Amino acid sequence: MPTQQTAHADPTHVGNNMYQLMRELYPFCRSITGNGNRKTLEIIKQHIPLVVHEVPTGTQVFDWQVPKEWNITDAYIKNGKGERIVDFRKSNLHVLNYSMPVKKKVSLAELKQHVFAMPEHPDWIPYRTSYYKEQWAFCMTYNQLSQLTEQEYEVCVDSTLKDGHLTYGEYHIPGETPDRVLISSHICHPSICNDNLSGIVLNACLAKHLSRLSPRYSYTFLFVPGTIGPITWLARNETLAARIKHGLVAACVGDGGNFNYKRSRRGNDEIDRAVIHVLKHSGRDYQVWDYVPTGYDERQYCSPGFNLPVGCLMRTPNGMYPEYHSSADNLDLVRPEFLAESFSMYTAVLDVIEKNKIYVNQNPKCEPQLGKRGLYALVGGQGDRKLQETAVLWVLNLSDGEHSLLDIAEQSGLRFDVISEAADVLLQHDLLKEILG
Ligand code: ZN
Questions:
Q1: For residue 136, which of 7, 129, 321, 401 sits 20 to 30 Å off, Cα-Cα?
Q2: What distance in angstroms lies between residue 324's CA and the mean position of ligand 1's atoms?
Q3: How far apart are CA 432 and CA 151, in angstroms?
Q4: Distance from C-alpha of 6 to C-alpha of 87, rounded to nearest angstrom
Q5: Burial of 337 (0-12, 13-18, 19+ CB in 10 A)
Q6: What is the chain's Cα-based Rg?
Q7: What is the pTM of this model?
Q8: Measuring CA to CA, how many Å separate 105 from each of 73, 111, 141, 342?
Q9: Domains, the chain, ranges and CATH?
Q10: What whole-number distance in Å separates Cα of residue 287 and Cα of residue 283?
Q11: What is the block-wise mean pLDDT of the chain (437 residues), using blocks of 10 residues?
Q12: 3-class secondary-structure state, position 332
């Protein structure tokens, strides 16, 4: 079961693997469609047997249509001497993501109308997109922009915007029950690490981890472009979506900030309580946010027609760190040890979900005599004995067919794994019986 395996997973090893995968994926120019996404999914496929779907341009998905496919091979701004002063080959952030093709000579004044920069961080290249309005533009550092002189420039965006496909990946792990856990991450950002790649590598690593277990729940791991991706998936999988009992959107999990949890729209569903329980007992500072209809792909999963119990567990949330949506959200911002901590937090949450069952005390009239069953000696090590005895008493008392183990953990103030271990021991002594369904 997940606890044992998680406990034995070497955090340094897990963190290094995630970081290595991030390094591999970093250079690709991802977007909401196109070959950058295909290459990304191909690499993830080397780790988990992802099924890659291609949905044609123009496909109606609820109120939206799958857009044209965007691909890019090169882009630059050349000065009068023919030197590349802005070069897509150096950073794919230099081009407005989804920029339409252009090749022409422009004056400085015209060029400036097609440039984004960040005066507040003059060394950083901003990340900008224009998915649903056809335009061309470049992004550059403010320092570069302020050094441009009056002359004729050649601008070139060698991109195509044509009928094609939207590409996404999914991986299903069947469990004992068809009830499902969803882990979703967006794949549409180019060379951006914390917002995008950290979620992708965590999602892939969790999928690999779960594939080695025999989980109670079935799992769906989704790798989708932001917004249009989950909309497309939900439109094609309404029946499957109805089976989602718990879900998390994984994003911004690679920086060193405290954990932040955004509740599902339902507010206090089992996933919300599981995450908050784990955070509360983590010994770290954390913050919990109520649901708002802005943010990541939980916006689609939590739209009123679905209202799925999907929250978002992050480190520093989107928009709340200075490097957000810029070239500074790079391989230096994210560290293997931070990724490893996020992995441990996610596996601890999934462990709660997996083991949160309801039992009935088989000896409900007065306390059973634990001593004659040798239970005091069996439960826990010497140091934890008192705690384990207390946990046993809590589980026996509240296992009335109404309270789940998470209820008992919350009410007792004890950690879920302590309560769950006590329940395991009582089960072995036939003092508990599981309530099914
Ligand atoms: Zn973003």
A1: 321
A2: 8
A3: 82
A4: 44
A5: middle
A6: 25
A7: 0.95
A8: 20, 9, 21, 48
A9: 11-67+165-355 (3.40.630.10), 71-162 (3.50.30.90), 358-434 (1.10.10.10)
A10: 13
A11: 49 94 98 98 98 98 98 98 98 98 98 98 98 94 97 98 98 98 98 97 97 97 98 98 98 98 98 98 97 97 98 97 98 98 98 98 95 70 75 96 97 97 96 89
A12: coil
Around ion ligand 1, which residues have CB less than 5 A away?
195
Ligand 1 centroid to residue 199 C-alpha, Å: 11
Q: Please tell me the distance between residue 51's alpha carbon and the centre of ligand 1 in angstroms.
A: 24
What secondary structure letter does DSSP report for 297? T
CA of 183 to the centre of ligand 1 (A): 17
| Secondary structure of 73-92 as H, E, C letters | EEEEEECCCCCEEEECCCCH
Residue 29's nearest CA partner among 121, 99, 85, 84 is 99
Tell how far the Cα of 273 is from the centroid of ligand 1, in angstroms: 27
Reference 24, options 9, 41, 8; nearest CA is 41
- Which of these, 205, 232, 168, 177, lies nearest to 9 by C-alpha position? 205
The rounded Å distance from CA 318 to ligand 1 centre is: 7
